[in-house]
Specification:
The complex is a heterodimer of chains A (110) and B (116).
Chain A (H helix, E strand, L loop, with lengths): L3 E4 L2 E5 L4 E7 L6 E7 L6 E7 L4 E4 L2 E6 L4 E6 L8 E9 L2 E4 L3 E6 L1
Chain B lengths: L3 E4 L2 E4 L5 E7 L6 E7 L5 E8 L5 E2 L8 E7 L2 E6 L8 E8 L8 E2 L3 E5 L1
Parallel strand pairs in B: 2-11
Antiparallel strand pairs in B: 1-3, 3-8, 4-5, 4-9, 5-6, 7-8, 9-10, 9-11
The chains are: A mainly beta (110), B mainly beta (116).
């Protein structure tokens, strides 16, 4: 089955700095890669996603890059704000099922 | 956007009792629903995948007789935790997927289960 590894597990940045979270996957059949933000006790919320026919996607301060050959994808958050503090999960999906990374706890210090 | 509701949002029960959790897609037809379990500070663990009108597919290590899943309609799936024990205490989250956009899952708000 699919195996997704996510790094780092914790990340602390100063407000205004950039944050990068990286994930690798094992199944070359995976073709959909969403990123979720989860606040304590709440549901995961989709913040950005990318499909395998695209190498990069950007939405305001958030961007995702995908390298299919190397089987890795990354989340980039620029100009971080304290409200960006949360747990971020990557996932790799193929045939309708998603496998999640272990999560990254991002703390943005004011 | 697509909305998924989950009920109840939290439940406390005695050991040995059964608890039913409902997951509803409110504004779209969910051909597939997923049930996840999440322990504190951990990732989402897929328990099972259910398709409307057919038996759920359980992940390895998940007891199908303990976690009963029914997907009776295109908008409702239920998870029943039978003979609950304290180790079943967890955050249970469902998600629903329609035909479009492909592969995108919409999550319910989760149910916090505490078994005394």
């Amino acid at each position: 089955g699919e195996n997704v590894e996510q790094h780092p597990s914790t990340l602390s940045v100063q407000e205004g700095d950039s944050a990068v979270i990286k994930c690798t996957y094992s199944d070359s059949a995976s073709n959909y890669f969403p990123w979720y933000k989860q606040e304590l006790g709440k549901r995961p919320q989709l913040i950005i996603d990318i499909r395998s026919n695209v190498g990069e996607k950007k939405d305001q301060r958030i961007a995702v890059t995908l390298n299919k050959t190397a089987k890795h994808f990354s989340l980039h958050i620029t100009e971080t704000q304290p409200e960006d503090s949360a747990v971020y999960f990557c996932a790799a999906s193929g045939t309708g099922k998603s496998t999640f990374g272990d999560g990254t706890t991002l703390t943005v210090k004011p | 956007g697509a909305v998924v509701s989950q009920h109840p949002s939290w439940v406390i029960c005695k050991s040995g009792t059964s608890v039913k959790i409902e997951c509803r897609s409110l504004d779209f037809q969910a051909t597939t629903m997923f049930w996840y379990r999440q322990f504190p500070k951990q990732s989402l663990m897929l328990m099972a995948t259910s398709n409307e009108g057919s038996k759920a597919t359980y992940e390895q290590g998940v007891e199908k007789d303990k976690f009963l899943i029914n997907h009776a309609s295109l908008t409702l799936s239920t998870l029943t935790v039978t003979s609950a024990h304290p180790e079943d205490s967890s955050f249970y989250i469902c998600s629903a997927m329609g035909d479009l956009p492909a592969d995108e899952q919409f999550f319910g708000p989760g149910t916090r289960l505490t078994v005394l």
